[in-house]
Write the C-alpha cells for this entry.
Amino acid sequence: MDVLVDSAKWLLEEAVKDLQQVKDVLCVIGVVYVGKVTLTVVCNLASVLRVHVWSKLVSRNLVREYGGKWAVVTGSSDGIGKGYAAALAKKGMNVMLISRTQEKLEKVAQDICGQYGVQTEIMQVDFALGQPIYDDIGKRLAGKDIGILVNNVGLVGSLPSFFKDLPQEDIWAILNVNSAAAASMTKLVLPGMLARKKGAIINISSVAGCMSLPLFQMYCASKAFIDHFSEALDYECRLSGITVQNITPCAVSTNMTKFDPLIHKQGFFTPSQSKFASHALSTLGYARNTTGYWTHGIQLWLTQAMPSWLMVNAHMWRYKSFTKKSN
C-alpha cells in the first residue's frame, strides 16, 4: 500500500512539474505574441505618421527630385486630375494638361498660370478612342523633360448598371480610359525617365479595385488592373531611380461621385478634389501604395475587416435602386 501511495505522489509531483513547464512555455509564447502585436502597431503608427504627417512638413523641390520641369496629368480638366495639376504647379512644375473638353482645359490652364506663374500646355484628347490617339500624344510629349506623370483619367459611367444592360461601346470606353490609358501613357514617358534615371509615375486607382462590387463590375475590374500594373512596374523600375506610386482613394467630391449625394457631399471621409490631391502628392516618395488621404486609410481598413458577403449585399441593396432611374 505504501508503495502505491509513494508512486501516486511521485506521479503527481511529476505532473505538477510538467504543468509548470507548460505554463512557462505558454507565458513565453504570450510575451512573444504581445510583443509582436505591440511592435506591429507601433510600426504601423510610425508609418502612418511618416506618410500622412511628416511628409507634409518637409519642403521639397520636385523638379530636382524627379529630374524634369514638366508634369503630365491626364483627366486634368476636372476632379482629382485638376487638383493634382494645381498641386504640382504650386510646387513649381510646368504642367501639360490632357483631357477631353477643350473649354475646361483652357480655363484650368489660365487659372494655373495666373495663380502659380508656371508654363502650361493643353491637349484635347478623348481616351475612350483607344490606340489611335497615342501617336499624336507622343509627338506633343517629345523633347519635354517630364519628371512626373499622373495617370488619372477615369470613367465610371453615368449610373450603376447590370452588366447585361451595359452597351458594348461602354465596355470598351471603360477599358480604354481606366486601364489602357495608364499603360499607354507610361509607355510614352518611361523611356525618358529611364534615360535620366529619375522620374515618378503616379497611377490613380480606386478602393473599388480591391473589391468585386455588383453594378460597378467594369469599374472594379479596370481599377484592379491599375493595382497590379503599378505593383509589377514598381518592381521593374525600383533599381532604375523611378518611383511608381499607386493611389487607391475612396470617395472624393468630384463630378464622378455626383450620382450619389451621400458619397459626393464633402465631409470627414470625403475631401474636396484640391484637398485630396494636395495631401496625396505629399505622400509621393513616402509610400508606394496608399489611399492618398488619411481618412481613406481608415475606410479601407474597415472595408477589409468587413465580411465580403456583407459588403457585396449592402452595395447591391443600396445601388440596385439607382439602376431604375436610368430605365
The radius of gyration is 26 Å.
